[in-house]
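Researcher: First entry.
Model:
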Amino acid sequence: MTTPSLPAGSRPRRTAALPRRRRRWPVGLALIGLAAAAIAGGWYLGATRAAGDRPLERFSHVHGLDAPVWAGGDLFVATHHGLARVTPDGAWYAVGNEQHDLMGFRAHPSEPGVLYASGHPDLRTGLANPTGLLVSRDRGRHWRPVALAGRADLHALTVQQHDGEALVGFDAMGGALLRSADGGATWEAFGAAAPLRAGGILSLEVHPTDPDRLLAGTPNGLWVSDDGGATWRLEAWPDVAVTALRYAADGRLFAYANDPELGLVALEDAAWVPLGLVLGGGDAVGYVAPHPTDAATLFVGSFGMDVLVTADGGATWRQLAERGVPAAR
């Protein structure tokens, strides 16, 4: 999948005082259009490399983030050319030898080593395009297709925190919501008329303990269902692209609303509280990964290939990568 280009000189910024003038960047609509191109192609013929993790000097696109409790403090970053791993001291490594274009990336919350993804294959593997659901059981070093091969491209995927076998995904190729109760072995389609009419689904999340409560970020606001997707309501931010959604293990909810007065927000006491991170220059946060044990630590990844971390609940941010280049340690 391609991503919006950034103008020269644009940088993520943390805003202490958010601007009053309301201006929305059309990132959400751009992503919907670009997704169609990724469906037709975009898979990768990787260069031959030695197996095993190796230092990473550059990556292309951020397609997902996760920091599962079983990873020992490491952050996983799904990219256009395979999986990357970032250690707590900021070292970047390419994981394994399979360089799939990993979309819809998420980790199993409790099963060590288990990762889910979709997308487009490294052509050396001979996998179908799109790959359908891929599963790794060795921390991303090897992937195998388990369902929907050649039939679904899950650009958004969510895993329920209390049941890592319960998955919900948005198939960008078929324009449908799909769910699985058995770790992705079998899937069923279910209704999502309202979010699709709102322009398509950019981000997707399921409540940690209630599988019937679903959230969908669209180019036109945040939509919520309390009945497993049968009916939906517009919960917040009409006409604003909601590009990222993520529950923390403790039930906190984070979102990125692509508006200069919002940006990265957290739901606290039934109110959305801005955390001070607003990306300009046509960029937006596409993925959020809470630290599994430290409530003050949060990772974010942008469509412009930036990866940032806060260790103090959003008061300050540190760059882990900028435009696909890992930061110097």
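Researcher: Second entry.
Model:
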Amino acid sequence: MKQDVIILEPLLPKQMEILEKTYTLHRYDLAADKNALLAAAAPICTGAVASGHFPLHRDFIARLPAVKIVACSSVGYETIDVNALTERAVKFTNTPDVLTDDVADTAVMLMLAARRRLIIGDRYVRSGDWGREGMMELTRRTAGSRVGIAGFGRIGQAIARRCAAMEQEIAYFGRSQKPGIENRYFGDLVSLASWADVLIAVTPGGAATRGLISKEVLEALGPEGTFINVSRGTVVDEPALIAALRSGKLGSAGLDVFLNEPDPDPAFGKMENAVLYPHHASGTVETRDAMMQLVVDNLAAFYAGKPLLTPVN
């Protein structure tokens, strides 16, 4: 007999096909009348599939009395009330590790693009300005510069390895100094920003890190500094970031995430010293396939009574 699973957010077609063959699916994501779908499915659905963007708050969780596992297709899950799930003895899984390399690659890509003004250079060639006006203005060097990393977990350390290959000096900030790490540790983020040429945010989102990259941090980074964000839009004081970029108190930024997605503040679109990317750091065929497959595999392990692959609680 197939288990009933509610789909709050869909997976990719390949994994959805597997789920459709394995379970009886209830498509909340596609329902025209979501309340009616929920009323019918909630009493029988023992599993749920969500993403880190779905607002799975305490009140919504209370409407899913039969659910015993929530499998999330993202690594971040600040919109999901894990405490409420844990109180109900509901298992929760996410998709760590598999996206580490792609996010680290994106951080380096944004750093290079922002400091070497790649987008402006591309436009300079396409427009014919190179031929009409001569060489483009000079940019800032990356090799040999100082990189501060705010958050030194798996992704932060992967970024550090890439930066080391470019002979950059690396330091980090976190809740505490990590044992066995040779890189310099800063317990104060303003001090790290003052030291760095580039500051990369790769911390988790959520209340604990909201506004962590403050006006003071951005201004400490300075008019020749570069800020890179591959974490969450909530991590930075976005109005302060816009003001610092406009005024020249911050040199440049490379941003994969924004406070309001998918419609970020239009001020960013008018800034030549900002390189923008649509929250796509993990957006490769290989990584997204691996993330979605982890959801499938965690559900399979749960219903088979086996240990979960990537448990959170």
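Model: Note on the second entry: The CA atoms of residues 92 and 284 lie 25 Å apart.
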